[in-house]
Design goal:
Helix content: 10-25%
Number of helices: 3
Distance between the termini: 17 Å
Largest sheet: 5 strands, mixed
Oligomer: single chain
Length: 139
């Protein structure tokens, strides 16, 4: 059922977009939901380098930026419609800061929330949590 895909109890007006991102060891995946329909509309993926030291936070943010552009365009909208951005990331994540992550050896105290804030409107809610925690919450 369409309304069950995203039901946090929070209701947005109009045709707002919700974006989910999964930062994995070999790829960054993203999906977008239009709150008008409540249905997952589009997904996209960007591969990461095999060598861990090449997986810098700047590279991952650039991939998320590109995926976000593709998704919003495919949804026939603009970034101004993005109301929430949720990110699951490996490693130790506290209050949106990745303290360290095994798959990303150069990541130390990376404030993903602050870095992602530059990609979306200032009123967009951004949440970054450990990917395993995100999976548990989804259950």
């Amino acid at each position: 059922m369409a309304g069950e895909l995203y039901d946090s109890g929070v209701r947005f007006g109009g045709s707002d977009l919700l974006v989910g991102v999964d930062i994995g060891g070999s790829a960054v995946k993203a999906a977008i939901v239009d709150t008008r329909t409540g249905v997952l509309r589009f997904t996209a993926e960007a591969s990461l380098p095999l060598e861990g030291r090449e997986r810098t936070s700047a590279l991952v943010i650039a991939h998320i930026d590109a995926l976000l552009s593709r998704l919003v365009h495919a949804a026939g909208s603009t970034r101004s419609a993005v109301r929430a951005l949720g990110v699951g990331c490996p490693g130790i994540v506290r209050k949106g800061v990745v303290e360290r992550a095994g798959n990303f050896p150069t990541w130390r105290q990376v404030d993903l929330v602050a870095e992602l804030a530059a990609l979306v409107p200032t009123d967009t809610r951004i949440s970054v949590i450990n990917d395993a925690d995100a999976a548990a919450l989804a259950e």
